[in-house]
Amino acid sequence: MISQRQLFLQYIAQTSPEPVTLEIVRARGVKMYDQNGKMYYDLISGINVSAVGHCHPQVVKAIHQQASKFMHLMVYGELVQSPQVQLAQKLVDLLPQPLDNVYFLNSGTEAIEAAIKLLRKFTGRTEIICFSNAYHGSTFGALSLIGDEKYKAAFRPVMPGIKTLPFNDIAALEQITNNTAGVIIETIQGEAGVLLPGKVFMHVLRKRCNETGALLVLDEIQCGMGRTGLMFAFQHYGIVPDIITLAKGLGGGLPLSATISSRHIMSVFKENPALNHITTFGGNPLCCAASLATIQVIEYENLLQRIEEKEMLFRSLLQHHAIQEVRGKGLMLCIRFESASINKAVIDKCIENGLFTDWFLFAEDCLRISPPLTITKDEISQVCNILIKSIHQAMMV
Ligand SMILES: Cc1ncc(COP(=O)(O)O)c(C=O)c1O
Question: Both 336 and 285 in a single domain?
Fold first, then answer.
């Protein structure tokens, strides 16, 4: 009989030359199980998606309840749908003013596309500033903002009017001018290997945008939804963006994203012409119900209050001479090794030893640590034991 693996290799479009091909048949909490019943800890949460773990009972219940009412209704923006409305109200409650208007979409990259269109239409300007090693998605507008030429080269010409500045370089912010429609930046860079900007940099960035009339877009698609210990990473910096983009953890495991701004800025989508930005599935009721339940779990289980303690535990247990650095914030961490080849060898051993993780697009020497926020201290100890054992084994060959 043809195996699922063979079918996968034959029929699914591949994105890398040597896919891992683990066959996962079930996942609960921070654990995933393959077809032979072997358990793997999930150290990456489907790349920062499963914030409250796989199949959290409250999230599953919310999906079931909504599925029994309706799963999809016609035309985004015309019908009042309670799951969307409830979720939008909750997000606005969690965010500071003036972020009080929510546009739901399906994926991170679409949230960025909506932000790009808002920047252009609201300001009437075309220049957009982004940063080295930025990742904002794979559709054309978002791709144009990628701060690494390797991923853009084959698709040039990309969107015109993009200026890429060095990340965390205060002097470079002078290049934001009265011609700039907006600046799009990850509050904490993910695919660069979890890089945090300095507080002064973020304050100068906010100030420079205010001075020039450029809008500030914070991409919290990877670092938002509690991952860093606060619901939104920008709250660590004491600044407020004009637009925020959310996805990944937002949907609690279902596909959902949001571009959030003020009513004033968002109103440009409403007319001249009407239906200026639309989506068939954005804000799907099942996804919104899952999202609201996820946020409620984060709150009821006091997950945010324990993130710092969990980060400290990771840092204290990850001691090995091959570890160059443990970098990041909260449960958005990475281990940096001396080279990409060492990292690859460690990752391979981790998978053999029952721990699933990967590397970053622009930091192949870094191993990703982004477990569900629900991971317990006991599970962190077990995960770190496997990591240290795998590093030993990888260094011996
Ligand atoms: C910071 C950031 N922005 C945008 C995206 C794109 O999200 P999606 O893959 O849902 O389109 C990602 C995905 O990794 C991301 O990390």
Answer: no
Say if residue 273 is in the same domain as residue 307. Answer: no
What does the longest C-alpha to C-alpha distance in the chain come to?
66
How confident is the model over 129-180, as pLDDT tens digits? Answer: 999 999 999 999 999 999 989 999 999 999 999 999 999 999 999 999 999 9
Name the residue of 48, 105, 110, 135 to mutate for ligand 1: max ligand atoms within 8 A of Cβ.
135
Q: Quote the ligand 1 centre to 223 CA distance (angstroms).
A: 10
Cβ of residue 219 lying under 6 Å from some atom of ligand 1: yes
107 lines ligand 1 (CB under 6 A): yes
Domain span holding position 70: 58-300
> Is the same domain home to 207 and 219?
yes
Question: Which of the listed residues 248, 266, 300 is the one where a domain comes to its end?
Answer: 300
- pTM reported for the whole predicted model: 0.98
Measure 236 CA to ligand 1 centroid, in angstroms.
21
pLDDT, tens digit, 9 for 90 and up, residues 336-377: 999 999 999 999 999 999 999 999 999 999 999 999 999 999
Residues 139 and 264 in one domain: yes
Hey, how many other C-beta atoms are within 10 angstroms of the C-beta on 81? 19
In this structure, the answer to whether residues 209 and 222 fall within a common structural domain is: yes
User: Does residue 339 sit in the same domain as residue 270?
Assistant: no
Query: Is residue 374 lining ligand 1, measured as CB closer than 6 Å?
Result: no
